[in-house]
Design goal:
This protein is mostly helical. 52% of the residues lie in helices and 5% in strands. It has five domains: 5-214, Leucine-rich Repeat Variant (Alpha Horseshoe); 221-313; 334-454; 458-564; 687-704 and 737-856, TATA-Binding Protein, CATH 3.30.310.10. Helix 23 (407-417) packs antiparallel against helix 24, helix 28 runs antiparallel to helix 29 and helix 30 packs across helix 31. Residues 1-18 have a biased composition (Low complexity).
Length: 861
């Protein structure tokens, strides 16, 4: 049996079959342009449809302009509409071709059919070509006097289009006065509305330069004009009613009787089916009664039902817009909506943005009478499959608790959330429990009993972990394992990526130290050491501050870090009352939806959001981690005998714009630093700075087996007390009788070991020294410096980049296991930035002196 024949698919009219399709259309249109045969209009329709479809999908059919104009000579209104659409699309980009359309458009403006007259006038005004302005004045003048209301309606908006093309031409032709006459006398409501809209825009633009325009704009807000519009408001379309109501909202009545008259006239607009009309009417009611407190409250009661009806009917988008306005009113008068809280319960089929807004409204209307029901409902949402909504519901419960409504029951509910064993629920609850404890310290016993059972390993979100750490430090005397939990967190310092968590950890460990010194001594020392070496500037600064504070006086440090606290009465609001009042003044606008007043919105809506990276953002590799060597170690060869065998392990970026951390742009002199930052801990003489035991036995001095035998127990150096040991940067200078450091001239270190050591070892010293003028002149190639340093038993394992960067190593002669690693950057100002890491940090100073001595002699021989 033969297979069935495949059906022929028809070519889609919206896709040209070839580049010659447009040429074929042009030929067919030209053939039909002068034809009067029967069925010509039907053929033109098919061709016009193809042209419009091509134009819609972006195909350039402007070459058909002349043929389309020639084919427009017809009485078929459908062809006229398509031709006007085509002309309006291409006229602005082809002003010379647009001139061809003037004759037939002006002719159509005098057509017997009012529909064609109106369409032609609208198309003529839509050309928006400055050179053709003179051709618009005549047809517009005729259109404003036309007997047909449709033509007058189009002409009123045409005047506004002319004003935007050429304001002087519009004013000179006295079109605004003609529009004013039509607005006050025309029997057609749509003509009146278009005239009002056009005049408002024209006079608002001209008011700054013309006193007459300013007077006319003020005249729009006169009592006769306002009452004229109010008496005809039922005749207007929904859009026109909104324009009129927006004008009425700006009117200032002379007395209360006038206010009531206006409200009575507009009472039935509150039952309108269109939400825009209802909101515009509500705006009028609210603004008219601002100075009448009793009436203003009654207005809230009156508008509540229409708004709640709009929320439950219509699309989700309309519900959100209405809810945004309702939320603004609820915030201003929550007591009036407290009995209607069930209207704000979330429905399962509502989108997330509507649910989120409803949760905010439930929080706002909560009071003593409805808190239990609202919190019960919110607790149900905590198990919602929509995680963002579950988070918002937990936050809502916390906000209600902070409002002092039924705190006892709410705390129990929050603590039950911690038993749900869901990461996001636990995280949000911990943040709320912290805030609750700040406001209600009396609940600490119940909360800490539950929080103490939570493992810090199960809390990953930074804000939640920071809240847990805050509680560990604040209530360490009530939590038996607090010092040990904090110690484990300090041990994992490098694995914690959040600076907020590290900042909280520093403070919490110090607080715990003041309450339980013996158990926290080691953790505090480790935390301060890690903080001083931290790459984040805030963490480093706080650690340095705590370090110096402890060295100055422990008692003062305790009063600064852990002073007696009072319960927080009020938490900072996200929006000031002034901003809320400005948003209320812009009721029934996008300001309410965005919750931003117009002054804030304008730059974003007109210019776009432009984000600038702060100038202090670090870009240096050292603030992103240690220098990374190439994983392909086969490309790196290391010679034990000659520096000629040293090749580049990994090429440093040539355009490494290290502007902020460039030593040549820093201070000329700087002490040793733990992290290479602009701040460094000073060198303290441990023999002169000590903690002295004063009146009570509880003063912070404890025996330490690491102390020398002659060290007095009553005066303990702060470094040893904190478990920092005696690093080279803080140790006393070596005695002159100490033997000089000797290096192994034939030291060998493979690249893998170098890379591993560089990552593991802390920075012992970070210094800057200058090259001699002879050395700077001799540095023609990297090999020259490598050979010089090798003569001093300092070997290079990698070099390259611009500015030149070298990685050296050296081996202690007496101790083969002790290596010194150096990163040396030669800047354009003939200075050398030196960073030293050592297996034995106590000899770092000696090696640094040896290295600088060798570098200073470069080029001298």
């Amino acid at each position: 049996m033969a297979p069935p024949a495949q059906s022929q698919r028809s070519q889609s009219p919206s896709q040209p079959s070839s580049k010659g399709e447009v040429s074929d259309l042009k030929l067919q249109l030209r053939q039909l342009a002068g034809s009067r045969a029967q069925g010509t209009d039907d053929s033109k329709r098919e061709l016009f449809k193809k042209v419009i479809s091509y134009m819609t999908i972006g195909v350039n059919v402007s070459s058909l302009f002349s043929e389309m104009v020639m084919c427009s000579a017809t009485s078929d209104i459908v062809l006229k509409k398509m031709c006007y659409l085509y002309v309006g699309n291409y006229a602005k980009g082809n002003p010379d071709l647009a001139l061809l359309t003037i004759n037939f458009l002006q002719k159509d403006c005098r057509d017997e059919d009012p529909m064609i007259r109106g369409l032609a006038l609208r198309s003529l005004c839509s050309l928006r070509v400055t050179n053709l302005v003179e051709y618009l004045v005549g047809p517009l003048g005729l259109g404003l006097k036309d007997n047909n209301s449709y033509v007058r309606t189009v002409a009123a908006i045409g005047v506004l289009k002319l004003y935007h093309i050429s304001a002087s031409t519009c004013i000179d032709a006295e079109f605004p006065s003609i529009l004013k006459n039509l607005m006050l006398n025309d029997p057609e409501a749509q003509v009146v509305a278009n005239c009002l809209s056009a005049l408002q825009e024209i006079w608002s633009s001209e008011a700054s330069t013309s006193e007459e325009a300013s007077r006319e704009r003020e005249a729009l807000l006169s009592k006769p004009v306002i009452y004229y519009f109010l008496n005809r408001i039922k005749e207007f379309s929904e859009w026109a009613q909104c324009v009129v109501l927006d004008l009425v909202a700006k009117y200032v009545p002379s007395d209360s009787n006038e206010i009531f008259d206006i409200m009575n006239l507009l009472e039935d607009r509150l039952q309108h089916a269109n939400g825009a009309v209802v909101l515009a009417t509500i705006k009028v009611f609210l603004h008219l009664t601002l100075s009448m407190n009793d009436v203003h409250q009654q207005v809230y009661e009156r508008i509540k039902a229409p708004l709640l009806t709009l929320v439950s009917s219509g699309s989700s988008e309309q519900s959100y817009a209405v809810l945004s306005h309702l939320h603004l009113l609820v915030v201003r008068a929550p007591i009036l909506f407290s009995s209607d809280y069930k209207h704000f319960y979330c429905q399962y089929n509502e989108p997330s943005y509507v649910k989120k807004l409803k949760l905010e409204m439930l929080t706002a209307v909560a009071n003593e009478s409805n808190t239990y029901e609202i919190v019960t409902e919110l607790c149900e949402y905590a198990a919602n499959v929509d995680v963002p909504i579950a988070r918002e519901s937990i936050r809502a419960v916390g906000k209600i608790a902070l409002q002092q409504y039924d705190v006892n029951a709410i705390v129990d509910r929050l603590l039950q959330f911690l038993e749900m064993e869901k990461d996001y629920v636990t995280a949000e609850t911990l943040v709320l429990v912290k805030d609750l404890l700040r406001k209600y310290p009396q609940w600490s016993h119940d909360c800490i009993a539950v929080v103490g059972n939570i493992s810090s390993k199960n809390v990953q979100e930074p804000k939640a972990k920071a809240a847990l750490i805050w509680m560990l430090g604040e209530y360490s005397q009530d939590m038996l394992d607090a010092p040990y939990i904090l110690e484990s967190l300090v041990d994992n310092w490098d694995d914690e990526h959040s600076a907020e968590v590290r900042l909280h950890l520093l403070t919490a460990v110090l607080k715990c130290f003041f309450r339980r010194p013996p158990e926290t001594q080691k953790a505090l020392g480790a935390a301060l050491a890690a903080g001083l070496a931290d790459f984040h500037q805030d963490v480093h600064d706080r650690a340095l501050f705590y370090y110096r504070l402890l060295q100055y006086n422990v008692s003062v440090a305790e009063r600064v870090v852990n002073p007696p606290k009072q319960a927080v009465s009020v938490f900072a609001d996200t929006q000031s009352s002034e901003i809320k009042d400005r948003i209320f003044d812009e009721f029934n606008s996008l300001s309410v939806v965005y919750q931003k007043d117009l002054e804030v919105q304008t730059p974003y809506l007109t210019q776009g959001l432009k984000i600038l990276q702060p100038s202090y953002m670090f870009t240096d590799k050292e603030h992103r981690g240690p220098f990374e060597f190439s994983e392909e170690l086969g490309s790196l060869s290391v010679g034990a005998e000659s520096a000629d065998n040293v090749v580049l392990a990994q090429r440093v970026e040539a355009s490494d714009n290290d502007l902020l951390l460039n030593i040549s742009e820093k201070e000329e002199s700087r002490g040793p630093s733990n992290n290479g930052s602009a701040y460094s801990a000073p060198l303290y003489d441990s023999s002169s700075i000590s903690l002295v035991v004063s009146q009570t036995q509880s003063e912070l001095t404890f025996p330490n087996p690491a102390l020398p035998a002659h060290a007095p127990q009553a005066s303990l150096a702060i470094d040893d007390l904190l478990g920092l040991g005696f690093p080279a940067a803080l140790a006393p200078a070596p005695s002159p009788s100490s033997p000089p450091l000797k290096l192994n001239a034939r030291a060998v270190l493979d690249p893998a070991t170098y890379q591993r050591k560089w990552k593991q070892l802390p920075v012992s010293l970070s210094q800057e020294c200058s090259l001699s003028p002879q050395g700077a002149a001799a540095l023609t190639t990297p090999q020259v410096l490598l050979q010089h340093m090798q003569s001093h038993s300092i070997h290079c394992i990698a070099s390259g980049g611009q500015p030149p960067k070298f990685f050296f190593f050296a081996q202690k002669a007496e101790e083969p296991a002790t290596f010194f690693l150096v990163e040396c950057i030669i800047t354009s100002s003939s200075k050398a930035e030196i960073k030293i890491k050592a297996d034995d940090q106590s000899t770092s100073q000696d090696f640094s002196a040896l290295f600088q001595s060798a570098l200073s002699k470069f080029g001298m021989s």
